[in-house]
Write the structure tokens for this entry.
Amino acid sequence: MGALTINTNLSSLNTQRVLELNRSQLGKSINTLSSGVKVAGSSAELVLSEGIRSDVQALQQGSRNLNDGLALLRTGEGALNEVSSILIRLRSLASQSANGTVGQDERQTVDLEYQNLLNELDRISNTTEFRGTKLLDGSLANSAEEHLIIQLGIDSSAANQIDLNSKVDLTEISREALNLGTSNVRSEGSAFLALNDLTSAIDAMIEIRSKAGTTEIRLSHALNNLNSQIENLTAAVSTIRDADIAEELATLTKNQILVQAGVAMLGQANLIPQAALTLFEGVQ
């Protein structure tokens, strides 16, 4: 049995210590519930989660960059589709003009449409752009001085970049580049020559569009992979940082009860020294 003292109340000191501990835990529960974050300060968990969050931010920007790259390719593909349609129509007109039953006046009419379509081909080549970047003037060719790089990862390594110029190699698309600069169908002979040139031009367009299409498919897969990484890393951050509200509410209730009990017991502990007064009863 401990000594009965007045100056030192060990029970009160112990109760104060436990009460302060419970009050601290109660404060943490309130902070966690108010912020929704279960880690705070400079804990190892917080430092780890910040590193992952940084990666998530970089990958989210990479996802946006890939979407821009896909939009650029789709813009170019739309223009290439129209150019292909023009070339197919031009070959049809050349075949019509090459037919021996067509009169000279009819060939002049056919050539009028033929020249207008060639002019439209050049107009599409000169005006097709994405955010100021020309797409059909050779800017996306592998031989271009400056290459268009899509950044999609967390660093600048080659594995986290896609060089559109080397993948697409979209050379200049114009009547001159397609060897149609002086092409016409005003005579039977020129129509035969035009047929040969147009066949070569259409073959070149098929190769160009195949490269653009396969690159678009690659970017789509890269985008899906990035989005999957973002989702999984975000889940990891949530596991580290996010509070379980149901669990924290249970902890809050427990700490509230312990604090209330501690306050009540502190009052009782402070009364213990009064027991010493009973020893003085009857003392004259």
